[in-house]
Amino acid sequence: MFPEMLVRFFTAQQELLWLTTLLVDLGCTVILYRLFGKAGLQVAIATAIILANLSGPKLTEIFGLQTSLGVIFYSSIFFATDVLSENYGRAEANKAVRMGFAVSVIVLLMLSISLLYQPTTDPKSAAFSLSIHDSFITIVNYTPRFVFGSLLAYYVSQSFDVWAFHRIKKVTGDRWLWLRNNLSTMSSQAIDTVIYSLVAWWGIVDLQTALALGAAKYILKMGIAAIDTAFIYWARASFRRREAALS
Q: Which positions ≥6 away from 169 have C-beta within 8 Å?
């Protein structure tokens, strides 16, 4: 899909690739918002959930830390709900959380059902079909632990993120958007990481190892939360320009 020169460059520069992916992901979320308003943010949340589920098993190393590629896409959900909270209020943000939960359930269910379909036996395409089928099994053969852990972590942490954002906004008013964005995201991401790490890894590895695996992801999540601050100001400025044009 990409030119060979670009592939070679980013293969050698994985940290720069991580930063580029993050900026593109956040930028696309803001663009969806500018083009489609509130509905664009709802689409961005659903898209991020699908991407996080599909890319979750892909492990890589960034800044010496082993992490899942899904962390980037999953973290952008917190950004989108914060934009909804800031511009449309708590009720709309909570509605988006419930919509995202429903999308996550549907994606996990339908992808799991897809594994029940057997590859074709037609000699002309059997080998190709089998390789795709095996790849699908590797990517989407979710364990009950993963399903329960991811759904529980998503719903609890996202609900807390909306609550914390508005709790801080009640104190700060319209000022210090950066503070409520970062504090709500960092605290809710901590809850998400702890819940998922304990549910997914409990009994498989010891408690210390489970928390260590979660800590590596959390460090990257904090970096994402800091970077998305500029994007949430961009989103708020877009909202105010739209409101001014309509008034």
A: 85, 86, 180
